[in-house]
């Protein structure tokens, strides 16, 4: 961030945002500002005490979005709805697609220099016999979070063509680390896995470094980047990471139907952003005490 930048971060109280904002505050240059859009005064006060500008409002409200955008040069849209028992598909579409696209459109109107969209590697859908690359078709058939992110990306691409807004998209693997309960909360999804099935992951520290590189790097207008670790983690290891044990008797004989699902090539991020994961695997994060 340059000394003239004011960076707006949405989703600042979410699992990604609450770990991202403190890093942005510590990495900013003198004179640069970090602003957050939060829904409660209590959250606003906490961010203000940490050194951020805070606007109280709802991302789904046009007037709140416009107040938050006033004087902003960069937007990082990390807001997302997908965790929680009572979250519906309509809730996901309202935040992950509709509010995100509206924010981008209003960012273009407000003269924002760059819009960084946080997306997911789930937009690719079924594997294609190799790691997915950024120019592959977004073909997920999974409803809810993946489809809302896919539809958002498609609408943002059209908006970029119409408005010229500089949009950079980061497609994150499974995010974890620093006390985030994501692995433990997701274990029910892994009960049907083979023990050797692998999933790409990305630590919160690496999400943050990808975001700051997306903010600072020149010449990447309209580019998308896969952000993930190097090795991936097996179903067996996912249980071990949270102190549980996979039922190996039940898993015996299971096969991996689509070994390429969720596997992405990170070469573009390495080449164009200079991205190198601080935690190449979840095991390395565990050894460092960063889970």
What descriptors fit this protein?
two-stranded parallel ribbon; 291 residues; Rossmann fold; single chain; alpha/beta
CATH class (first level) name: Alpha Beta
Distance between the termini: 28 Å
**pLDDT < 50 stretches:** none
Percent helix, as a range, is: 25-40%
Account of the protein in words:
The chain has eleven helices and eleven strands. The chain has a single domain, classed as NAD(P)-binding Rossmann-like Domain (Rossmann fold). The mean pLDDT is 96. The protein has 291 residues and is α/β, with parallel strands linked by helices. α3 packs across α4. β5, α5 and β6 form a beta-alpha-beta unit. Helices cover 38% and strands 16% of the residues.
């Amino acid at each position: 961030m340059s000394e003239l930048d004011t960076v707006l971060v949405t989703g600042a109280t979410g699992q990604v945002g609450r770990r991202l904002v403190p890093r942005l505050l510590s990495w900013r240059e003198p004179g640069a500002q970090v602003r957050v859009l939060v829904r409660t005064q209590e959250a606003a006060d906490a961010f203000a005490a940490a050194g951020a500008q805070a606007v109280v409002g709802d991302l789904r409200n046009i007037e709140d979005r416009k107040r938050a955008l006033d004087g902003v040069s960069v937007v990082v849209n990390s807001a997302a709805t997908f965790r929680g028992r009572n979250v519906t598909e309509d809730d996901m579409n309202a935040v992950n697609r509709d509010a995100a696209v509206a924010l981008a459109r209003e960012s273009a109107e407000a003269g924002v220099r760059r819009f960084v969209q946080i997306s997911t590697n789930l937009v690719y859908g079924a594997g294609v016999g190799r790691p997915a690359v950024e120019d592959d078709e977004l073909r997920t058939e999974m409803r809810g979070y993946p489809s809302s992110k896919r539809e958002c990306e498609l609408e943002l691409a059209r908006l970029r063509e119409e408005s010229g807004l500089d949009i950079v998209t980061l497609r994150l693997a499974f995010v974890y680390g620093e006390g985030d309960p994501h692995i433990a909360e997701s274990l029910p999804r892994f009960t049907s896995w083979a023990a050797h099935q692998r999933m790409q992951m990305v630590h919160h520290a690496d999400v943050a470094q990808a975001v700051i590189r997306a903010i600072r790097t020149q010449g990447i207008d309209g580019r998308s980047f896969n952000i993930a670790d190097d090795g991936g983690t097996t179903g067996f290891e996912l249980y071990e990471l949270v102190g549980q044990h996979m039922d190996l008797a039940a898993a015996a004989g299971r096969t991996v139907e689509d070994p390429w699902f969720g596997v992405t090539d990170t070469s573009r991020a390495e080449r164009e952003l200079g991205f190198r994961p601080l935690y190449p695997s979840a095991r390395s994060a565990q050894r460092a005490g960063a889970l």
